[in-house]
Amino acid sequence: MLPELVHHLERLGLDAATPPTARAWRAFLEGLDGLLAGAAPWQRQAVEHSPNPIFVTDRQGRVRHANRAFVALCGAERVGEPVTRLCPDEEAGRLADLTRRVLGGEAFGRVELRLGTADGSERHMLSRLYPLRDDAGEVLGCVFAGTDVSEQRREAQVLLAQRRSYERVLNAVPAPLAVFDRDHRYVFCNPAAIQNDEIREWIIGRDDVEYCAHRGFDPALAENRRRHFEEAARTRQTLSWEERLATPEGGERHWLRCLSPVFSEAGDLELMIGYGLDIGERRRTLEALGQLNDELEEANRRLRHDARHDALTGLPNRALFNERLAHTLARARAGQGPGFAVLFLDTDRFKAVNDSLGHPVGDALLVALARRLRAELRATDTVARLGGDEFTVLLEPAGGVGDATAVAERIGAVLQRPFEVEGHELTISVSIGIVPGDREYGSAAEVLRDADIAMYRAKAQGRAGYQVFNAEMRAEALNLITLERDLRRAVRQGELRVLYQPIVAVGTGCTVGFEALLRWQHPERGLLSPADFLGVAEESGLIQELDRWVLREACAQVRVWQRRLPAAPPLTLSVNFSGRHLAAPDVYTALSAILAETGFDPHALRIELTESVLLTHSQTTRETLERIRRLGVGLHIDDFGTGYSSLGYLQSYPVDALKIDRSFIDRMLSSQGSAELVRTIVSMAKNLGLRVVAEGIELPAQLERLRALGCDYGQGYLLSRPLTPEQIPAFLAGGNAVDRPEQLRNAG
User: Which residues pair with 468 in a beta bridge?
Assistant: First the structure.
């Protein structure tokens, strides 16, 4: 980087003997991007892939560079803004002052800052701030590198609050009380033991030798206390002895001193609790200590309870459920316990509640759901919250599959009754997996694994139901794991294929474009359609990579056809994008890069999205779609009408066309309802200024009906099957009629 920096300085006329002008500095900062881009690849990658947010400002205090962690946390739009826009208003002045000081040459190693995130929340960052210098030592900007300590801060606040609550209890005790560490140093002392606030504060971290010397007491007093401390630790028992202590007034008081050792689970001494009792008031003091012991025991009981129960619902958590299930299995294997069954419940579409109404409403719904579940079960049963919206039930005793399915049906029915939550009436359903009790299970984890498999089968069957586990389900789950492994290999080894199905103008019969369709040439199972593997791709996170591969492949292929057939009419290209892909922060950048790489005209590209993308109602999603639309790319809603109704959102998003799902086209000649729905969609689209594409046209009568309704475009086996890249040139050169019945070649 040094040669480029020197060259840039010389080009601007900057050297050690020539102080830079403001204009020259501005030009220098404008070249900062290029200079930083010249860093070694490992340096750039180390910064870019760091899990901690890192960004760089220029001398004007604007964010000039940021790594992925910063963009994911604060949003890409923060790059280019003043650094003071990154934090709450009340902290902006402090951050501005720190930035000025760093630009003046100072560096700060541990500064806690609050940064605003892209979702509107705040995160506490333990930050390092230091100057970015060129090889001549001049400060170019300010480097910020942060570590998210929000969770640690919250945990520390909880622990501090607990400690303060315990200290309030101990300070209220009228009897003298002190706590020592394993080295006989004071860690706590209440006012009844030492009334003087200054001495009580001074003594923390010191031992009795220092205390007695400080107060002028006989050194033998400290030696005697040390001997009893060591004896109590050695015998591991509470030790008591009498002690005479001179008063400031010259008198003498008699005390009963007690030391109680406290050990860790590993058997090591953790602390020693010391009590000082005025023997004359022994009864009153002992009563107070008894109350203290009760309070401490209650606090410990609460801590043990909290460690084994869910904080939100109060139900047993995963640890306690596994413990009880393990005991049940042990009794079953010994032939001593009753029959049992395990139910695994997952709330259907719970994420939509959190996304639309907020997490407080979602939490309140989980509490109400847990209460209703608990009321529906027996006292001998255990219902637990594993986390999120997942619950488990241990039925004990259970007479068999019949008892378990009856409970599942009852739970499903009772949970479908509307919930009144925070002023909202919410209706939910659950998918339930059932594992009948089997003594052959080796652990609770194995039971939960199979119950989870059965639950996902219930979801796959349409949700709001239950499935009883069988061995075939486990085999299928293993097959899915194998399929995911094979799919990752397919991406690396070039087993994926793209077919192209023509899209035809219904009115004229002319081909106007193609839809790119992904296929997988599996080495053992043959050619697989997306239905065979896209679910696995979604779950594994491969869907984003597949979407981008199809886009790049199809754009490059269409460009090849355009060069080979310059006389062919302009054609559009439709490519599917999943909702998960669209949520990726770099989707716009990646799309633009692929278009630039392949030279494909953005105005000829159509991105097809499902209705669920609109239903997220996310500001980020809307902004992403608007940026893509401004690029010139068209946006189509695929399989319209099959999901939740999204008619109210259509005017809020930059949508160009609706694709009517093939299921409605298939039934439009036999079902009056489907025919009316198709007519309604076409009419509504026309009123909104949108085009309509009909999928799955297989009969001439369907085509005629769609033409009469004014449908714009269509695709389906009647018009053409999906074609290989090798078939397309002949299709385009031969009148666009490959695989099309003779009577339709002059349609329109």
Answer: 434
Burial label, 114 (beta-carbon count in 10 A; 0-12, 13-18, 19+)? middle
Cis amide prior to 397 (ω within 30 degrees): yes
Output the CA–CA distances (angstroms, integers) from residue 468 to 243, 244, 410, 437, 455, in the order listed: 71, 74, 15, 12, 9
> Which element (helix H / strand E) includes 271?
strand 269-278
* Separation of alpha carbons 326 and 342, rounded Å: 12
User: Which letter does DSSP use for residue 82 in this model?
Assistant: B
| Contact between residue 129 and residue 108 where contact means Cβ atoms under 8 Å apart | yes
Strands 657-660 and 634-640: parallel
What is the token pair recorded at 634?
A: 């068209």
The structural domains of the chain, ordered by start, are: 2-148 (3.30.450.20), 154-307 (3.30.450.20), 318-469 (3.30.70.270), 515-742 (3.20.20.450)
- Rounded to whole angstroms, what are the CA distances from 741 to 148, 734, 745? 64, 14, 7
Three-state DSSP string of 547-570: HHHHHHHHHHHHHHHHHHCCCCCC
Task: Tell me the residue type at 488.
Answer: R
The H or E element that residue 387 is part of is: strand 382-387
Gap between the Cα atoms of 718 and 695, Å rounded? 11
Question: What is the distance between the alpha carbons of residues 478 and 126, in angstroms, rounded to a whole number?
Answer: 44
Amino acid symbol at 72? A
Q: Which amino acid is at 186?
A: Y
Give me the residue label for tokens 């946390």: 73
What was the pLDDT predicted at 163?
Answer: 62
Cβ atoms within 10 Å, residue 734: 10
Give per-10-residue mean pLDDT for the chain (748 aa).
38 39 43 50 72 90 88 87 87 88 89 86 88 87 88 69 66 80 89 85 89 86 91 91 73 80 87 79 62 78 85 91 91 83 90 85 91 91 91 89 90 90 87 87 88 85 84 74 80 88 93 93 86 77 86 93 84 89 83 93 92 68 87 89 61 85 90 89 89 94 94 95 92 60 41
Q: Please give the full DSSP string across 394-410, using - where no structure is assigned.
A: EESS--SHHHHHHHHHH
Distance CA 512, CA 572 (A): 6
Let me know the angle formed at the C-alpha of 576 by 572 and 577, rounded to the nearest 5 degrees. Answer: 125
Name 606's bridge partners: 574, 634
Rounded distance between C-alpha atoms, residue 615 and residue 266, angstroms: 54
